[in-house]
Amino acid sequence: MPKRYFDLADDVYLPGRWELGHPLDQNGHPLEDPWQFRVGEPARFKGHVQIPIKKPGTPLGFSHAAFSIPVVHVRVASLLAEMAPNDVEIIPVGIDGQPDQFCILNATRLVRCIDDKASGEVRYWRPEDGRPEKTGQYRAVYRMGIDPSKVGDAEVFRTWGWTVALIVAEEIKEALERIGTTGAKFKEV
């Protein structure tokens, strides 16, 4: 039986949940390149990161800060570092008023596995779109499907060409559910 994979997303509809803001450096300035935590490679920024609370509410085990940067409770971070040590980078962050430790979850693997035929719809950047640096890349992927045979040994990864998606293997999904990770939403790909 082929291995199953799931898109791990932030459940933004949870009532009373917190909202996290733009990550800041040790001097309180917005990080210059917050996208670096969403491209499927190790982060370049190695200093202290502080994430402000944009809207107070219930802290979550998994949520997104600005730019859809995954932020996880240290318990979730520890589980992922144990189960997928070659796939993740755990970056401790400070969150004002939080006694618990939180971390940025940076998936450091990029896998070329989107299956256009198994997806609901895919769109590509074309030359006439006026973005030559993006020509040939995915512009949109709806109801993503992946080809599990192309994943290899990755357990947590970003999809090449559409790094919006954070994909986890079924074993990771089940482990996150077992420890009661709040804020996490899964959709099979």
Write the layout of secondary structure elements.
Elements (H helix, E strand, L loop, with lengths): L4 E6 L8 E2 L28 E3 L1 E3 L6 E4 L3 E5 H10 L4 E8 L6 E6 L2 E2 L9 E4 L13 E5 L13 E4 L2 E8 H9 L5 E5 L1
Parallel strand pairs: 3-7, 9-12
Antiparallel strand pairs: 1-13, 1-14, 2-4, 5-6, 6-8, 7-8, 10-11, 12-13
What does this structure look like?
By secondary structure, the chain is mainly beta. It has one domain (5-113, 140-182). Helix content is 10%, strand content 34%. It has 2 helices and 14 strands; from the N terminus they run ββββββαβββββββαβ. The chain has helices at 74-83, 170-178, and strands at residues 5-10, 19-20, 49-51, 53-55, 62-65, 69-73, 88-95, 102-107, 110-111, 121-124, 138-142, 156-159, 162-169, 184-188. It has a 5-stranded mixed β-sheet with strand order 9-12-13-1-14. A 5-stranded mixed β-sheet has the order 3-7-8-6-5. The chain has a two-stranded antiparallel sheet with strand order 2-4. β7 (88-95) and β8 (102-107) form a beta hairpin. The two termini are 15 Å apart. 32% of the residues are buried. The model has no long low-confidence stretch (mean pLDDT 95).
